[in-house]
Write a structure and sequence with these properties.
Elements: H1 7-29, E1 34-40, H2 44-59, E2 63-69, H3 75-87, E3 93-96, H4 106-112, H5 124-131, H6 142-155, E4 163-167, H7 174-183, E5 187-191, H8 198-201, H9 212-218, E6 220-221, E7 224-225
Parallel strand pairs: 1-2, 1-3, 4-5
Antiparallel strand pairs: 6-7
Helix pairs in contact: 6-7
């Protein structure tokens, strides 16, 4: 029998915990959590995502600031803004909405963010800490962290003896998701656009499963997966 997990219920509990922590930090230390979102260009999807992030930050009691820059912004101008946010003691987290419009290069910008303010967990320092199991001082992308909440609710903290399949190998989700599962003692299979379709590669006891529709959306057709970026 399938087990239904209420995502809204889980999200509500996480939001309440973050609200309480933010309130306690401000009450006991006089520090209001500062969150800066940087968006370049006028891509509608990016603005939708950023709007949702900013609203959620405010709901959690953060001081949320959005920097909206024109598409013609230069690499140097964007880098200068990141450096300014790094030096701003009222800002504790920085998020740059990706992808950046061409010809801007995202990686040099991401690596400019102070690791302790890199809330997407994309800085090489945070990636290295995740790879070595340092979850105390390293920052991890919220998507794999959120997925682990569901996995633990279904299977507990120790995934010994279980197989997990991760679809995709992006730095934002696939790679950190695989590492989180490995840290919980699961045996992990990575399925991506350059390998046999995950429907045939997955072991029968996989922690993460999918529907035929999900595979179609992922670009799987027959024995191979159609070309995808991940």
């Amino acid at each position: 029998m399938a087990e239904i997990i209420d995502g809204k219920d889980v999200a509500a509990s996480v939001i309440e915990a973050v609200k309480a922590a933010a309130f306690d930090l401000e009450r006991t230390h006089g520090v209001k959590t500062g969150f800066a979102v940087v968006i370049v260009g006028d891509d509608p999807a990016s603005h939708t995502y950023d709007g949702a992030k900013s609203r959620m930050a405010k709901e959690c009691g953060f001081a949320s600031i959005q920097h909206t820059l024109p598409a013609k912004t230069t690499q140097e101008e964007l880098a200068a803004l990141i450096q300014s946010l790094n030096q701003d003691p009222s800002i504790h987290g920085i998020l740059v909405q990706l992808p950046l419009p061409r010809p801007l290069k995202s990686d040099p910008i991401i690596q400019l963010i102070l690791p302790e303010k890199d809330v997407d967990g994309l800085h090489v320092v945070n990636g290295g800490k995740l790879a070595t199991g340092d979850l105390e001082t390293g920052l991890v992308s919220c998507t794999p962290d959120g997925a682990m909440v569901f996995v633990r609710r279904m299977h507990g903290d120790d995934l010994s003896g279980l197989n997990a399949v991760v679809i995709g190998r992006s730095n934002l989700f696939g790679k950190p998701m695989a590492q989180r599962l490995l840290d919980a003692n699961a045996a992990v299979t990575m399925a991506h656009s350059r390998r046999t379709c995950p429907e045939r590669a997955a072991p029968p006891s996989a922690v993460l499963r999918w529907s035929r529709r999900a595979l179609d959306q992922a670009g799987c057709d027959g024995d191979r997966c159609r070309h995808q970026s991940d």
